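S1.2 Input.
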Amino acid sequence: MTKTLWNDFECEEFEFEGQPAKIIFPHGERNGKWLLKTEYFGAFPSFEIEMLNRGFCLAFNRNEGRWGHRKDLARKANFIDYISKTYHLDSRCIPVGMSCGGLFAIKLAGLYPDKVSVLYIDAPVVNLLSCPCALSGVPQPIPAEEAYRNLGLDAKTILSYRDHPLDHLPTLIKNRIPLALVYGDADVTVAWEENSLLVKEAYEKTDIPFLCICKEGADHHPHGLDDNTPLINFVLSNL
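S1.3 Output.
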């Protein structure tokens, strides 16, 4: 266990099931709730910092890849149990997933709905045939081979793959998991029509709490919002 600072917050770094992990604590009293950054720790952290300032904790466990294979997801489920028991926090976390982190957040909630209270996903990868495989013809800066290696697939087997985030949306809806979605409608990395739109259409057919924010004219980066108030209010009202 190593104690460090992250954005001036106390941080404990350690290893969990063979991968680096960390937990960051608020300055004042902890409220028992916590965020799980599912990928790209430290990227576009304004939402996480504002939640730390409201008494939330923040945790991260590094993945072996960014495409959501089952070993990484099973480790995340174990990590949730470990964090909640070790630090006396809620047994359900709030996954924060940006881009491929959104892929992780959706699949985590689909496989382990009892470990998730509310989701925040930002420009998520929802359909691997779109990103990174580019089967619709939209060029991709991410090589598909990276996902194939991580998931044990190839250009043929991806066509019958049934473990995309979109395949887990029915479970999220069945378990009535509140979800906040942010995306840019000029995203050329993770095309919103082939990814975020699938989430939007699925949730808008239900009465489950759902916040959808479209950033007009925005590309994939930067993630997040200039004003996190809508996100913060949504999370706080659905815990």
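S1.4 Remarks. Residues 2-128+165-237 form a domain with the Rossmann fold fold (CATH 3.40.50.1820).
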